[in-house]
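Possible regression after last week's pipeline update?

I re-ran a chain I had predicted before the update to compare outputs. Posting the input and the new output here so someone can diff against the archived version. Not blocking, just want to make sure nothing changed silently.
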Amino acid sequence: MKTILLYSLFVTLTMMGCAEFLELKPDQKMAVPNTLNHADLLLSDYSTMNTGYPSLGQVACDEYYLNTEDWNALPEEDEKAAYTWSDQIMMMHTQWQNAYKTVYVANQVLEILDNVARNMEPVRYGHVLGGAHFFRAFALHQLAGVYTLPYQSSTADQELGIPLRLSPALDYKSVRSTLQATYDQIIADYKDAIKQLPITEPRSGRPHKAAAYAGLARVYLDMQDYEKAYRYADSCLMFKSDLLNYQELDAESPLPIARFNKEVLFAATMVFTNALGPYYARITPELFTSYEDSDLRKKLFFEENESDAGTYAFKGSYDNTTGAPFVGLTSSEVYLIRAESAVRTGKSAMALADINKLLEHRIVHTDFAPVSETDPKRLLSIIINERRKELVFRGLRWGDLRRLNQEESFRKTLNRTIDGKIYTLEPNTPKYALLIPDLVITESGMPQNKR
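New output (post-update):
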């Protein structure tokens, strides 16, 4: 945590510029961020606030596989352990630390704002305040999706959540809240963000009102509160509903989807992870063959490996990069949230409208045939399948497995094979909450996830 403090001060001084820094008197107090401008700049530190979120859930999911040679070549033991759902101690604390660094900066900004007069620049003040609540909610949700058990309303007040660090103070010990308290805090922060954020935000990486609605819709989907997931997805799409026309993208490009494109509501990426890079990760045949040839995603998302014919690597990142998957919020995800929530709450006509609008932007125009299924169960299955095909390598599959395993019709047992040994992950196992890094457990004394 001391490192986080020093880092934040360094970032602030760097943003002030060298000339301005040289004019400062040798007074240590003057290096402490304490103005609205400082708070605004802290939220604009893209490398801290928008990158480095936990990737081990994505490593553990079923969208790809590793061959034995590549698994053995992984430099991080934690990635090997996550891939095989091992019970070995997790040593790589950056997965945990990076997200809490975002939480720390958000808390620092909120503390600054407590000591700044709002009436001087009330509009800007509100935008910064909303941004801080948004970033804290987003980071806490990313942590909860990896390090806690899946949410169930009947047990959430008894299960362990994550530490809720709500102050930048360093002199108190981290303790694990309940899972219910964790989600209550995430929801409260997103709702505070919605009240304050602007409708439009020209700065890439900074959230706006639609992004906060989308974040809250994602949270309620995880909680299986489909009425509220529908409501907040609907609110999001009232503000921003753009979809890319995949017919207009270049399928021959090595990275065909532009960064900060019009679907992106909030840009964020995971920590760089070798296991998920194109030289290691091969798309599972079951997923690849689920795309029809007329589905533009098949060529935009995947390319054949030159050194391993018949296998495919992922290239469809919404961050236009490889190795650090996009985990932000997009309008396409929100359409799928609204579609699924609609069919689950008796609004099949809306579900059909949403899934068809999305697919119309994904299928070759001359081959597009609208979905016309009217049976709610079959329509739900179609939407769930399209969700998997649309949101591949977006950090969402792990959460979907956690959530959908609670329904008998969608439960799935995962299998891996390394060196001829088969590893299995059963539905609803405690292993769906990854182990917290050992350093965190040792330093704090908090309880580890059960096995």
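Follow-up from reviewer: compared with the archived run. The beta strands are 64-65, 160-163, 176-178, 264-266, 282-283, 302-304, 312-314, 329-330, 414-418, 421-425. Marking as no regression found.
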